[in-house]
Amino acid sequence: MRKIKKGDNVVVIAGRDKGKRGDVTAIVNAERVLVAGVNQVKRHTRPNPMQNQPGGIVTKEMPIHVSNVAIWNPITKKADRIGFRTLQDGRKVRFFKSNGEVIGA
Predict the structure, then answer these.
(1) Other CB atoms within 10 A of residue 95 CB
(2) pTM of the entire structure?
(3) Beta strands 82-86 and 92-96: pairing type?
(4) Sequence-separated (6 or more) residues with CB below 8 Å from residue 67
(5) Distance separating alpha carbons of residues 48 and 21, to the nearest angstrom
(6) What backbone phi and psi angles, to 5 degrees, belong to 66?
(7) Pick from 18, 20, 24: which is nearest to 5 by CA?
(8) What is the pLDDT of residues 72-94, one digit of tens each?
(9) What is the fold, at CATH topology level, of the domain defined by 9-80?
């Protein structure tokens, strides 16, 4: 089970986009995630008539390292750390370290 999953609201804690918040749109690999509106770069693309793609400068999001993001705790309104807990019925769930609240329950 991963600490950060697709759909989580995260805040960037390091890098040039420090302080920005967004939702995780994709998990690229074990250590990189794609966050909406964060780490945007300008890509100069060549037109491709076969795929009906115009050329020009395209703004796109690049993956960010998972160590540079922290999950957003809506109760405390701060970035938070995540722990794992096994419930009575045997389910393994994530919880916020600061207040012990279960995530997504």
Answers:
(1) 18
(2) 0.83
(3) antiparallel
(4) 14, 31
(5) 34
(6) -65, -20
(7) 24
(8) 999 999 999 999 999 999 999 99
(9) SH3 type barrels. (2.30.30)
Q: Which of 26, 22, 30, 28 is nearest to 71 (CA)?
A: 22
Q: For the chain, what are the domain ranges?
A: 9-80
For residue range 25-67, what is the model confidence (pLDDT) as tens digits?
999 999 999 999 999 999 999 999 999 989 999 999 999 999 9
**Which residues sit opposite 17 in a β-bridge?**
none
Tell me the C-alpha distance between 43 and 102, whole Å. 40
Buried b (16+ CB within 10 A) or exposed e, 36-66: eebbeeeeeeeeeeeeeeeeeeeeebebbeb
Alpha-carbon distances, residue 69 vs 45, 52, 78, 92, 98 (angstroms): 29, 36, 12, 22, 17
